[in-house]
TrEMBL record:
MF term (GO), any: methyltransferase activity
Coiled coil: none
Record keywords: Methyltransferase, Transferase
Keyword Transferase: yes
Pfam families noted in UniProt: Methyltransf_23
Name recorded for this polypeptide: Methyltransferase domain-containing protein
Protease found in the keyword field: no
InterPro entries: SAM-dependent_MTases_sf
GO biological-process terms attached to the record: methylation
Length: 204
């Protein structure tokens, strides 16, 4: 994923109330879909400014926030310093398209509106599976398949996802108990785009 655009917009990211509200909706959907406890080790991948981790709050335990944007990581560090995110939170510069999975394990991986930017999707899903503790859950919030109008003609990522195709890719990555449900919506330029939550588990 290219990070230059996100570096440029990071400082103002949280000023968009829609982004804050959507992160809360994603966090609510995650909490309804998988068991959360204070011992849950969370990785938010493509964390941006950490809004989903913020919204999950004390429903989870140790948090690691990964993003390949220098600007976004700087905002996360500022939030940690200000107490908006836990003092113990770790911040990683990580891009699983080009880097191997770190030698760590998590109980929950959450990624919100990130995967449509990922080109090597199968590789990233497999690395998510590697990073999960057996029995751990992956939660993906992203766009349903759309006509390309969301990003415009020069976007080279995915125009959303077909739910059945993504479910098959999650299964191919070695995950089980795959399910996809409605999550929230993303309003852009007067058009509403539906967002799903896909949930899968690493087998024990």
């Amino acid at each position: 994923m290219g990070s230059e655009h996100f570096d440029a917009v990071a400082a103002d990211w949280d000023r968009d109330e829609q982004k804050v509200v959507r992160a809360r909706q994603v966090a609510r959907a995650v909490a309804a879909a998988v068991p959360l406890r204070p011992s849950t080790r969370l990785l938010e991948y493509g964390a941006g400014t950490g809004l989903v981790t913020q919204a999950l709050g004390d429903q989870v335990g140790a948090a690691t926030l990964a993003d390949n944007s220098t600007g976004m990581r700087a905002v996360i560090q500022d939030k940690i310093a200000a107490g908006a995110l836990p003092e113990s939170a770790r911040v990683w510069d990580l891009d699983l398209e080009s880097q191997p999975a770190p030698d760590e394990r998590f109980d929950l991986i959450v990624t919100s509106l990130v995967l449509h930017h990922v080109h090597a999707l199968d590789r990233v899903l497999s690395r998510f599976a590697e990073l999960l503790e057996p029995g751990g859950h992956l939660c993906i919030a992203d766009l349903d398949r759309e006509d390309g109008s969301f990003h415009g003609h020069d976007f080279d990522g995915h125009h959303g996802f077909d739910r059945d195709e993504l479910s098959a890719q999650l299964t191919e990555a070695g995950l089980v108990d795959v399910s996809v449900r409605d999550c929230t919506e993303f309003d852009r330029d007067g058009v509403s785009y539906s967002v799903f939550l896909a949930v899968a588990r690493r087998p024990v």
